[in-house]
Specification:
Layout lengths: L2 H15 L4 H14 L7 H18 L5 H17 L3 H14 L2 H5 L14 E5 L9 H5 L5 E2 L14 E2 L9 H5 L5 E5 H7 L2
Antiparallel strand pairs: 1-4, 2-3
Helix pairs in contact: 1-2, 1-5, 2-3, 2-5, 3-4, 4-5
Length: about 200
């Protein structure tokens, strides 16, 4: 393995480590491995990496199952033993370091504790806390927030709401809300509560 390839893998690892969710870490690492340092000369890497990426995307996208977790673990184990170069072995080692975490398994039940997998959470405005100042409306680049700013001479306002299909979950609205009316909610919890 060349010094440049080794440096690229180190850079990939550093970027992946900046993420908090183990599924996102593993997905980022495998995506970057496939787009750069992988040579594709041996079967464990060339077939295993692509299959692992499909399974990790399912887990990050909210459709993953225990079979996906088991498949990724099996693929990474095979890559760590049978890859012909250090690049494949290092990729497999990185995935294996994270796959047994409790958070990895929670994705199967619909929970991303770190709120990095977008399909697992949403932003919601709590009407009782909202003072209708409209600051969130002004910072939303996606035009995902609807409602009317409060005016002292009017009554009967449309309350602020977030259109989930438009929301890119950038989090700017949460940081600017002076009353803490915008909260992050686990999608699974909302569904079971019937909200």
């Amino acid at each position: 393995m060349t010094e440049q390839t080794e440096k690229k893998l180190d850079d990939i690892k550093k970027e992946a480590d900046r993420k908090n969710c183990p599924v996102q870490k593993s997905l980022y690492f495998i995506d970057e491995f496939l787009s750069g340092p992988m040579c594709g000369k041996c079967f464990p890497c060339s077939f295993g990496s692509y299959e692992a990426r499909v399974r990790l995307r399912r887990l990050a996208g909210g459709t993953g199952s225990e079979e996906d977790v088991a498949a990724v673990k099996r693929i990474a184990s095979n890559m760590s033993e049978a890859s012909m170069c250090k690049k494949g072995k290092d990729t497999a080692k990185y995935i294996l370091e994270h796959i047994d975490s409790k958070e990895f398994a929670e994705h199967v039940s619909g929970v991303c504790a770190r709120n990095e997998c977008m399909e697992y959470f949403k932003y919601v405005i709590v009407p009782d806390k909202c003072d209708m100042c409209g600051i969130c409306l002004d910072v939303c680049k996606d035009n995902a927030i609807t409602g009317e700013k409060k005016k002292s001479y009017l009554s009967g306002y449309r309350p602020f709401e977030i259109a989930q299909k438009r929301c890119s979950k950038c989090g700017k609205c949460v940081t600017v809300c002076p009353t803490g009316a915008i909260v992050v909610v686990n999608v699974k919890e909302r569904e079971t509560a019937g909200v």
